[in-house]
Records
---
Amino acid sequence: MTQRITSADVIITSPGRNYVTLKIVTSDGVVGWGDATVNGRELAVASYLADHVVPLLIGREADRIEDTWQFLYRSAYWRRGPVTMAAIGAVDLALWDIKGKSLGVPVYQLLGGAVRDRILTYTHTTGRDIAELKESVAEKLEAGFRAIRVQSGVPGLNRVYGVNDRGGAYEPAQRSAVAPEEDWDSDLYLKTAPAMLEEIRAHVGPDIKLLHDVHHRLTPIQAARLGKAIEHVGLFWLEDVTPGENQEILHLVRQHTTVPLAIGEVFNTIWDVKDFILTQSIDFIRTCVMHAGGLSHVRKIFDLGDLYGIQGAPHGPSDVSPITMAASMQLGLAQRNFGIQEYMGYPDLAKDVFTTSYTFADGYFTLGDAPGLGVDFDEEAAKKYPYEAAYLPYARRLDGTVADW
Ligand code: CS2
Ligand code: MG
């Protein structure tokens, strides 16, 4: 029996941080949850969905996931971009959730079944200086993580990406009416980053996987220099070394270093990342399972990567909701060239709204047998946390020029 979409609602809630959630209900009474959170631009996606997509969904066959994806992508005429693709991604996740629940199976079963038993996961560590970073590393190792991203303050700069300038856990967006400002100077960073990574490697020993995110800051030749300088540290990856718009240039970086390169969290379609992949300039493609159009599209990106030994490693900061996280893990179980999942963790209040079925032990996540994506959303609890304006920071160089953040 064909089930049709009878309602679709957009819910904005802020349990510790803002999340945009799409609820789709079918004529069989099945509820599907999608995530549409674009950090710092939440209301734009909420409007795109509520004003332009929801009216198109009512009455459509809920089971036709690929057809709905193609329809939403091609019928808009205006293509790609984070707002459009996150909105399509939210619909896609909700429809996979519905299909799984309707058939009584977790989504990974619909993607071909498990090709692995558990999902290797990395988390974030951070410190204003190396001493503080070591404490953060100890805490995450204690929690069971065996792959960690390390970010530290840069002497001479007050506020930098990945570090809370008041100490403690880091959260990219800050609740405020204006975008907070950070500092940047590539020379100061390059002077200290290699020693920081060396010291952390010495501290954790050879078996812990270490990752580091440059967050689009360097010129190509600076990136090449950094890669060379830290080769002996044995990083699992170096992320976003240059601004991603210039895809050809990573080829240059790669000629100078064997440090594995990861990139892609800011990109939203296969067309935006194909050059990195086809020129074999990277090792890990980091497109987000929601921001890049949902499971239906990210699967295609990862399959393209698989032709060249490039591994999928989806974006998983606190700013994509547990719905996206669960979808990422569903894909992680079924996608052969899935490399690692980012898991930054969530504010405690988020647990009041989202209930997940994935569980963590010894550096890996495991999925249970909950049908669909395996996430529940408590609408009553969500009402307790109204939207609060929040912005991502931006960076200025020491001379006042706006830098890449
Ligand atoms: C990031 C994020 O997780 C990552 O690798 O680069 O921290 C990113 O800065 C945020 O998702 C922005 O919203
Ligand atoms: Mg990143």
---
Amino acid sequence: MAHNTLEKTPVTLLGLGAMGTALARTWLAAGHPLTVWNRTPARAEPLAAEGARGADTAAEAVAANTLIVVCLLDDTSVDQVLAGTDLVGRDLVNLTTSTPDQARARAEWARERGARYLDGKIMAVPPMIGVAEAGGYVFYSGSPQLFELHRETLAVPAGTTYVGENAGFAALYDVALLSAMYAMFAGATHAFALTRKEDIDPTALAPLLADWLVAMAPAVHQTADQLRSGDYTKGVVSNLAMQVAGTPTFLRTAEEQGVSPELLSPYFELMRRRLAEGSGEEDLTGVIDLLVR
Ligand code: FVH
């Protein structure tokens, strides 16, 4: 289908790594006039052939449009790339991974340079970009007016989830979800290690693991309800005392299988500490209080 590019918001994109390139292709496919710049110019060439305008410098790319999207390696590279650019009157959308404090500092940095700022954190890998059914989305935080103004353009590569005016919140949600993901990967790593030396096909274990993790995931809703009410015994099915009593079985199985318990032990230790405080009738929720003290 032909697109009328005159109706589409022009976009400048700085950073054409795996993610930047995927983003660029979706805006081009949707008919947005696109200006691109990358430190290594060769990465812009295929996109130029697909209709993007390649800028020679980051400053030239920033001068070309009002909406500037940045997708670089880290906050330091954002500093380096934007250093020589004039951001006055620009709408800066930064999709680069950072900490919440870095995002808030970048918002203030942009404001001092006369730009409006929106922080974005991408909950997707490059193949999910532009594929609506893949479920990828981007957390946005910062100026609500800027989000509304550019919502349609920002929704082209992936879904949009606005999480508040505090510019650090997109990064906080991002790191919270990814931290949970790494803990899940750690659990799966331990499970595969336990069975590694046996005549057990990992491809037979994998679907069982995946189904079990999916079945257990809704437990986070009960955790959230307990945190909100402050009653960690509400709706408890398997209390802390029972779960701690089971931990020697896990540790002994690891030993029997010749597997290091180093991924499991820190969590078990926290469970034991919470139990020692007299919280045996609670859920695991009380461990959160041990962490934030
Ligand atoms: N790829 C992924 O799976 C994840 C998914 C979730 C979000 N992340 C974040 O997205 C940012 C960009 O990631 P990426 O996948 O595009 O990363 P790379 O392919 O490594 O490309 C990095 C780009 O950054 C440029 N760059 C790096 N350092 C500098 C610098 N000092 N000055 C200028 N540009 C710099 C690099 O340029 P070049 O190497 O091609 O010259 C690439 O354009 C990132 O925050 C992820 O955490 C992706």
